[in-house]
Amino acid sequence: MERAQAWDIVCEFVQSDSLRKHMLSVEFAMRAYAEHYGEDPDSWGLVGLLHDFDWEIHPTLEQHPVDGAPILRERGLSEEDVNTILSHGPLHGHLRTGLREKALFAVDELTGLITAVALVRPSKDIRDVKIKSIKKKWKDKAFAAGVVRNDVVEGCEALGVDLWEFHVPLVLKAMQDHAEDLELDGSKAG
Question: In this predicted model, what pLDDT tens digit does every residue of 41-50 receive, in sequence order?
Fold first, then answer.
């Protein structure tokens, strides 16, 4: 599947602008991980872009992402890519054995926290976000309370990477490099 086709699927099934931005954030982070591991950024980015495409039609963890998988298969997504997307769902027993599955699980929740940190800054510019700001908000369980921090930690442990020395900087930079695409470039400040 080409990225343009994947984006068409996102636009068809996802109406929420914030969910679309989340999916783009995960795509950018997955591309960064692929480059780090010498893997195919297009393939890794594709699963990041599509990972939550069915959330609005299947908005429970019991349904998502399993109930969306047949749609992706029908649209031509490879079984390997579908299985990677299935692996990020915590309730369905799909194993995260490969680097790509582990990376998707690790970056998914973190992108939400980083976005929230950027949005509370006066500038609303992700390029102004520092690691220490993320760390401070990470410790505040009331901040972005929906972010499952344990998933991020578990994902980092599975990848064998340090949360603060490697993972957070890599994901933050990937998102900062695409600030305009994410509309986190300060244009919405004020």
Answer: 999 999 999 9
Of 179, 166, 55, the closest CA to residue 107 belongs to 166
Question: Which residues have C-beta within 8 Å of that of residue 31, sequence separation ≥ 6?
Answer: 41, 44, 45, 48, 174
Helix axes 149-159, 99-120, angle to 10 degrees: 140
pLDDT above 70 for 90: no
The model's confidence at residue 78, banded by pLDDT at 50, 70 and 90, is very high
pLDDT value at position 97?
84
pLDDT in tens, 106-140: 999 999 999 999 999 999 999 999 999 999 999 99
Q: What are the structural domain ranges in the chain?
A: 3-176
Q: Domain 3-176 falls in which CATH fold?
A: Hypothetical protein af1432 (1.10.3210)
The pTM (predicted TM-score) of the whole model is 0.95
DSSP for the chain, written as a single string: --HHHHHHHHHHH---HHHHHHHHHHHHHHHHHHHHHT--HHHHHHHHHHTTTTTTTS-STTTTTGGGHHHHHHTT--HHHHHHHHHT-TTS-----SHHHHHHHHHHHHHHHHHHHHHHSTT-BGGG--HHHHHHHHH-TTTTTTS-HHHHHHHHHHHT--IIIIIHHHHHHHHHTTTTTTT-BSTT--
